[in-house]
Amino acid sequence: MGRTAGRGALRIEEVRGAPVTGNKVETMSRDQLVARFAEIGEAQSTAELMGRTEAFNKLFKRMTSIEDELKQRDGDQRRALVTLFAHPNMQVRLNAAKAVRPVEPEVARRQLEEIAASRHYPQAGDAGMSLWAWDEGIYRPE
User: Tens digits of per-residue pLDDT, 73-95?
Assistant: First the structure.
């Protein structure tokens, strides 16, 4: 796992107890939130490969707090996560695509379609199910 702006990539060991971040999301810049979102996706990828479901789920909660913070900022800044579509980690790309669906539906759909077609599992399966839920009206943008 690579290093990202300001802090090394999250380690699974950090998920066990104390919060992963030393910063409160409310005080972080948009760029810091995007970088942290990517770090969390990388850590989720590692957790999934290691079969650490509890760690993955804890990271999911941290990721959604970043998503919520970006959403409530002026102009709904979740669009900034589109920059992660070029990230080398498939989990990061999947998380970003799902997060931007409400604000950039066309580009989010294309990214989810690319991930689903990649056959890079389990993310390809998740992307395919996300598209199905969207098409069936089960998923509703917030």
Answer: 999 999 999 999 999 999 999 99
Amino acid residing at 38: A
User: Are 81 and 120 in contact, with CB atoms under 8 Å apart?
Assistant: no
Quote the pTM value.
0.83
The pair of structure tokens assigned to 108 is: 């989010």
Report pLDDT digits (tens) over 54-71.
999 999 999 999 999 999
User: Inter-axis angle of helices 123-135 and 105-118, to 10 degrees?
Assistant: 140
Closest to 107 in 3D by CA, of 116, 119, 98 = 98
Distances (CA, A) of 128 to 3, 30, 61, 98, 113: 29, 29, 22, 11, 7
User: Alpha helices, DSSP H only, in the chain?
Assistant: 30-49, 53-72, 90-100, 105-118, 123-135
Terminal-to-terminal C-alpha distance of the chain: 31
Q: Which of 81, 83, 82, 87 is nearest to 63 (CA)?
A: 81
The answer to whether residues 94 and 38 touch, using CB atoms and an 8 Å cutoff, is no
